[in-house]
Specification:
The protein is an alpha/beta fold and 206 residues long. It has one domain: Rossmann fold (3-Layer(aba) Sandwich), CATH 3.40.50. 36% of the residues lie in helices and 22% in strands. Strands 3-2-1-4-5-7-6 form a seven-stranded mixed beta sheet. A hairpin with a 4-residue loop joins strand 6 and strand 7.
């Protein structure tokens, strides 16, 4: 997915549909990450979470990875280059930066991939960041009466991003078994919007 065409409009579109709910998901566990020193930030778009992360972690330096050059430009304007290196690259197929990462962030990033693709991305990142915690936010289809309206909303979102950003994926992949398969476990989790939105922290089991 490449969000160049909608980059300048993305923030207000997000606010119009979800209010501040997605931003609250992204930042829910920031207090638990204050000791982070080196982060790999995947698919952060316009850099709103990146800015909050840098504020919350005064000693942190980050590598930002996003496929959209327009989103990258917005993130650069938001936070500058002093503590961040920016990479306009595809996390699925292209080179990823490497460092001694102790944190990986992936907010509303996993939902851009089919299952086999997501498994590949997770394994690529674990290879270069074997000891890192992960902070993850994602959509989920909740149980109960909210399942149907949630499925409808998620379907509309996939159709929109398919048209506007060339997204080929058409449905959510459950990332949890893929994370567990590479030795990670979830030890913090919070749901919002009746279970439609989930915030998590994952860490190596060893």
């Amino acid at each position: 997915m490449n969000c160049d065409a909608i980059a300048r409009h993305y923030q207000w579109m997000e606010l119009a549909v979800f209010g501040n709910a997605l931003e609250r998901c992204r930042t829910r566990f920031l207090p638990e990450l204050a000791d982070a020193r080196r982060a790999l930030v995947l698919g952060d778009g316009d850099g709103r979470f990146l800015a909050r992360l840098l504020d919350a972690c005064p000693s942190l330096r980050a590598d930002y990875v996003d496929r959209s050059g327009a989103m990258l430009d917005l993130a650069v304007r938001r936070v500058g280059h002093e503590r961040v290196k920016f990479y306009c690259t595809d996390a699925l197929t292209e080179h990823l930066p490497q460092s001694e990462y102790d944190l990986v962030s992936a907010h509303f990033f996993f939902d851009c991939f089919e299952r086999d693709q997501l498994d590949h991305v997770i394994r690529r990142v674990v290879t270069i960041a074997p000891n890192a915690r992960w902070i993850v936010s994602e959509f989920r289809v909740p149980d109960g009466w909210l399942a149907l309206p949630s499925r409808m909303l998620i379907s509309v979102m996939y159709r929109f991003f398919g048209l506007a950003a060339g997204l080929k994926t058409r449905g959510l992949t459950d990332h949890r078994p893929l994370m567990e398969a590479v030795g990670l476990r979830s030890f913090c989790r919070e749901e919002r919007a009746g279970g439609l939105l989930v915030s998590e922290i994952w860490a190596p089991t060893a």
